[in-house]
From TrEMBL:
Classification lineage: Bacteria, Pseudomonadati, Pseudomonadota, Alphaproteobacteria, Acetobacterales
Domain of life: Bacteria
Protein name from the UniProt record: HNH endonuclease
């Protein structure tokens, strides 16, 4: 996942090597929460279940065996590619200790950062309202 330009100064110069060590050295190319393999095409359901080709079973969001989808669930199966990223567990990009970094797929990374994204969405909404009030008058 690319680093935003305004945050690049917070990451160390050897970030690519450190990220690769976490994702492929320690985690073995699999998400440390759900076990999804890096860059594999997966069959997924909206509730987080996914089909593991290696074991031939459906897994839940915590990499535990899950029930097979019924006919109604099977209609919602989609194919996606899981890509691993090194995530900071304490949300501080300056803290690059190995115990603070985990290899997470996109789904687990978004779930981990959910509270941060919710706060950012609230700030963005309030900022838009303030700009609208400042330049366009009160909303109807």
């Amino acid at each position: 996942m690319p680093i935003r330009r305004e945050l690049r100064s917070l990451y160390p110069p050897h970030w690519r090597r450190l990220s690769a060590e976490v994702r492929f050295g320690r985690a073995g190319g699999r998400c440390e929460r759900c076990g999804r393999p890096h860059k594999a095409l997966l069959r997924c359901l909206p509730d987080g279940r996914w089909f593991c080709e290696r074991s031939g079973t459906w897994r839940d969001g915590r990499n535990r065996p899950a029930r097979w989808p019924n006919l109604l669930d099977a209609v919602q199966i989609r194919t996606t590619k899981a890509v691993l990223a090194a995530a900071h567990l304490n949300h501080d990009p300056r803290d690059n200790r190995l115990r603070n970094l985990h290899a997470l797929c996109q789904r687990c990374h978004l779930l981990h950062d959910r509270a941060y994204h919710r706060a950012q969405r609230w700030k963005t909404l309030r900022r838009r309202w303030a700009i609208g009030d400042l330049f366009l008058g009160l909303y109807a």
